[in-house]
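Supplementary notes for students who missed Thursday's class. We covered one full example, reproduced here. Read the sequence, then the structure, then the short commentary at the end.
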Amino acid sequence: MNLEIWGSVGAIFVLLGLSGFFSGSETALTASSKARMHALERKGNKRAGIVNKLQAQKERMIGALLLGNNLVNILASVLMTSVMMSLFGKTGMIYATMAMTALVLIFAEVLPKTYALSYSNRMALSISPFIRVLVFVLAPITDMVTKIVETTFKLFGVQLNIDEHDDEHTELRGAIDLHRNQTVEDETSEERAMLSSILDLADVGVEAIMIHRRSIMMIDIEQDIDSLIDEVLGSPYTRLPIYKGSPDNIVGVLHTKLLLRELKRCDSNMKDFNIKSCLFDPWFIPESTTLFDQLQEFRKRGEHFTLVVDEYGSLMGIVTLEDILEEIVGEITDEYDIDATAMRSQPDGSYIIDGKVTIRDLNRQFDWQLPDDNYSTLAGLVLFESQSIPKIGQTFIFYGFRFEILRRQRNQIVLVRIIPSADSKIKKIEAT
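Structure (token representation):
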């Protein structure tokens, strides 16, 4: 072989190296972690800032890389064809095709992209300055190509710029669920559950977590003062709704700290006792309010207690700041909370659940997938799916679970035994 052929062979390998660089760069920049790059940029990493800017103009970046990649691949193919034809004549074209296919596939595609996937963040930081220059130089050409592509799509009636991708919350939720499915039990499971719950705040209404009016302890303002004080001091709560005449007529919310302050002022002279000085104005919110919006309102107003009403203005329940925080971190108890043992596991693998337990709590506790679109509680699920008020001892099978009614109080389902199917995913808890 003469010097010209050796020069062409050397140029081919240089071009294959460039092709591999372009292919690996595209994979590294698209696969690198956006969160990681933003964190590095905040810490002062200039190359991470370049990566973020390149990702922000992804179409131009990919266009420049594809242009460079195709350019060097075509040039390498032309040179290989010239070398093979000079050595083997017309059959050299076949040899050139076979050789370039193998070389490009292995050394310019699979090898660099595999490396880029394994070390995407590191590689993205390393090549970002060079890619920034390349994108700037090829910007006029890539912009012209983009215009041609858009015009071609318009001619065929194809609309672009339609966002068919999931929003950021869905992407984050998918990442959390992916890690949860990959690890059955580990020390980060609670952290993942908390992250998932935070994302749910904007999608869940207050009616899903509120304390129903049947379970609210309310005080009648028209009763005698001694009975009222005894009832308040005997309650485990610091804030209590006060009604007049009817429980729907809430006239205020009593705070025990204000009550003690008023009792001290009276100095045992109950004739001077003024119940109104112990009250603050009730705060009503519609049942459609989301947990995220309500959390922001709690922070803005500096209050921890609100009453939920329906579209007719009737009292439905109450929501506190603690209720919303429990949606994120799980149950919060103190020395005044009553241990209700609402969820109890049994030796036979079944669970005895209070009918007032919410479906959200069940799903979070046991990693089940029971729907809660049309109801909030376990009792609501049974009533909705059975389309009846079941009798004690009656059983139903919904969503792969067997539901047995253990206790009923009038028309309210009080206690249910749940028997999961063999293929149900269950997180075991200790019997209480």
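Commentary. Residues 206-329 form a domain with the CBS-domain fold (CATH 3.10.580.10). The longest helix spans residues 120-155. If anything here is unclear, bring it to office hours.
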